[in-house]
Design goal:
The complex is a heterodimer.
Chain A lengths: L11 E8 L6 H4 L10 H5 L19 E4 L11 H8 L4 E4 L4 H10 L3 E3 L10 E5 L4 E4 L4 E4 L5 H8 L3 H8 L7
Chain B lengths: L4 H10 L8 E5 L2 E5 L3 H10 L11 E4 L9 H17 L2 E3 L6 H7 L8 E4 L13 E4 L2 H10 L1 E5 L2 E8 L8 H12 L7 E6 L1 H4 L3 H9 L8 E3 L4 H7 L20 E6 L6 E3 L7 E3 H4 L6 E4 L1 H4 L2 H11 L9 E4 L4 H9 L2 H7 L2 E3 L20 E4 L15 E4 L2 H10 L11
Parallel strand pairs in B: 2-3, 2-5, 3-4, 5-6, 8-9, 8-11, 9-10, 14-15, 14-17, 15-16, 17-18
Antiparallel strand pairs in B: 1-7, 12-13
Helix pairs in contact in B: 2-5, 6-8, 12-14, 12-15
Classes of the chains: A alpha/beta, B alpha/beta.
Chain lengths: ~180, ~425
């Protein structure tokens, strides 16, 4: 289930919601003491440890992180979205993201979406329809629209991340 | 319509007449990375199989986050960075040189008008030198190493004009904590902040770096200032290339402009566990503290150690309290040794930590015990930040930290500054 670099995001993502509040910083996502490693599976085993030591045990492959405003604020550490991705999380939905985290996630090919998350509760089964750009909540039967990504971000995510994008294009191209 | 400093710097780095809101690809003048985020950038760069970085003279690595190495895993990452740098002809500032952001400005690697990125969120520090600089992730850095460029959306600017000057015993750290408390942790998301006004003009470079360093703590993409005599005299002798200071046009358009009078500001303290949880020292004083840390890329400069030594001279720290002092760089350490500042701090009971990030990112050199309270001059007090999620971190100025070390509890430093 874990997505590798270069994998293209599936058109419909399905998973359960794990709900967090506002201003979840990258120290909470992955503590600094664990970041000095290139072993991403061990990194992922400490995901959200300071907030909930049991968090990774509750995960099923493809589950979603759902948060409020300013998700991923603080340190620029890319270990944060790496830990989320290698823990098998399918996507992150938030009311808003911190700029650096948002870029890092896109660069890794981890789907991240800005949408109104206020009505999503823990364990809600969700479907993210990338073609329609909506999130369906299978509990409430309601849908909400996700904010469109900038074209350059869509291009990067469609290539599976920044490394495959630059391997193919050798340079950035913003002209449409 | 006139342009902001951001619009001018980015226009000159992409050879286009660009405005806030535009998506641009800009040339980078300096790319900095360190031992925490550098290895991932190197791994990503190797996947391009392109051999050399775009310009090795515009790249540097600083080993500062876990130095001297606490274990063999980190030691091997240090070796990996040094091997890569050697093969590429990239300069490495090795263990003991200091915190990356202090080293970069001290070694004269940044000039007014530059566009700089680093794999550390506090790269925004260099805005105090009238440059545009900010943190990026490791994969973005791999793209910079390959192409020398970064794509970005040109940010709008929030201009904060500080009127008046700071009262005695109140420092730029207090002003920045107050600013973050007032606008919130996401108050400047996707914006750059220009710090302006008499309050800024009256600050020395050390104090200005504090303001820009912490601009990320309210979500800003960057924080910066105009260049003036203080900037130019600080750069003299450090920088040996030509540069052109950049100013706002008179009719530049800002997202918002705040004007705040700061002449009555008091010492400020950020309480656990967020940087925007800020109170005046009177509301926090009396909180018992077990460890005090003076250092970091925020407040580990000579002026910071000087004020701490001034307050502590002839006094002892409270029995049972640990006072950890970490000069931000080797140069800061040397200067503070020559002045007798370190001697005085050690006589008062301080433990000196080798230049680097010290205990701030929670790896080693001062991890607090369960239930302990730390008062620190750092920029973050998130739960678990210093390596233990059962400890609490308060943030304040070096003066507040030094005064609190005498009593073992949070105190107003003004009573020790007659």
């Amino acid at each position: 289930m874990k997505r590798e670099e270069g994998d293209v995001v599936k058109p419909i993502l399905k998973g359960r919601a794990h709900v967090f509040g506002d201003d979840i910083n990258t120290d909470y996502i992955i503590a600094g003491k664990y970041t000095k490693t290139l072993d991403y599976k061990s990194l992922a085993s400490h995901l959200f440890e300071d907030l909930d030591p049991e968090f990774t045990k509750k995960l099923l492959p493809g589950d979603f992180i759902v948060a409020g405003r300013n998700f991923g604020c603080g340190s620029s550490r890319e270990q944060a979205p790496i830990a989320i991705k290698y823990a098998g999380i399918g996507a992150v939905l938030a009311r808003s993201f911190s700029r650096i985290f948002f870029r890092n996630a896109i660069n890794l090919g981890l789907p991240v979406f800005v949408c109104d998350t206020s009505n999503i509760r823990a364990e809600d089964p969700l479907e993210i329809d990338l073609k329609e750009q909506v999130v369906r909540n299978c509990r409430t039967k309601k849908t909400c629209v996700v904010e469109p990504l900038a074209p350059v971000m869509m291009d990067i995510i469609n290539e599976g991340g920044l490394v495959p994008y630059l391997k193919k294009h050798k340079d950035f191209n913003l002209k449409k | 319509m006139g342009k902001t400093i951001v619009e001018k710097i980015l226009s000159s780095h992409c050879n286009e007449d660009i405005r806030a809101g535009d998506y641009v690809v800009a040339r980078v003048d300096l790319a900095m990375s360190h031992d925490s985020t550098g290895p991932i950038a190197i791994e990503a760069f190797k996947k391009y199989e392109e051999g050399h970085v775009w310009d090795s003279s515009k790249v540097c690595f600083v080993l500062d986050h876990a130095t001297p190495s606490p274990n063999e895993r980190v030691s091997n990452l240090h070796t990996m960075i040094k091997d890569f740098a050697t093969s590429q002809g990239i300069k490495v500032y090795d263990v003991g040189e200091g915190v990356c952001h202090q080293v970069v400005v001290e070694k004269g690697l940044v000039c007014p008008g530059d566009f700089v990125v680093g794999t550390d969120s506090h790269t925004c520090t260099y805005g105090a030198l009238n440059a545009l600089s900010f943190g990026v992730g490791s994969t973005d850095m791999s793209g910079v190493l390959l192409t020398g460029k970064l794509w970005l959306k040109v940010p709008e600017v929030l201009k904060i004009i500080y009127k008046g000057t700071l009262p005695r015993g109140v420092f730029s750290k207090d002003l920045m904590l107050y600013t973050i408390g007032r606008i919130g942790a996401a108050g400047a998301d996707y914006l750059a902040i220009e710090f302006a006004g008499d309050g800024i003009k009256a600050m020395n470079m050390s104090e200005r770096l504090v303001m820009c360093n912490m601009s990320i703590e309210c979500g800003a993409k960057a924080g910066y200032m105009e260049a003036d005599e203080v900037t130019l005299s600080w750069l003299e002798g450090r920088v040996n290339r030509a540069f052109e200071p950049v100013f706002d046009d008179l009719d530049a358009k800002f997202a918002d402009v705040y004007e705040w009078d700061i002449s009555d500001l008091t010492p400020q303290v950020a309480c656990p566990h967020t940087v925007d949880n800020v109170f005046s020292v009177e509301e926090v004083q009396g909180e018992e503290i077990q460890q005090i840390f003076i250092g970091t890329c925020t407040n580990g400069r000579l002026e910071d150690l000087r004020i701490a030594a001034q307050i502590l001279r002839g006094r002892r720290i409270k029995e049972g309290l640990r006072l950890l002092v970490c000069p931000a760089s080797r140069d800061v350490m040397l200067a503070s040794m020559k002045e007798g500042v370190l001697l005085s701090l050690v006589e008062s009971g301080a433990t000196i930590i080798p230049p680097g990030c010290g205990p701030c990112p929670g790896t080693h050199l001062g991890v607090p015990a369960d239930g302990e309270r730390v008062l620190s001059t750092a920029n973050r007090n998130f739960k678990g930040r210093m390596g233990n999620n059962k400890a609490e971190i308060f943030l304040a100025s070096p003066a507040t930290c030094a005064a609190s070390a005498i009593e073992g509890r949070v105190v107003d430093p003004r009573k020790y500054l007659n």
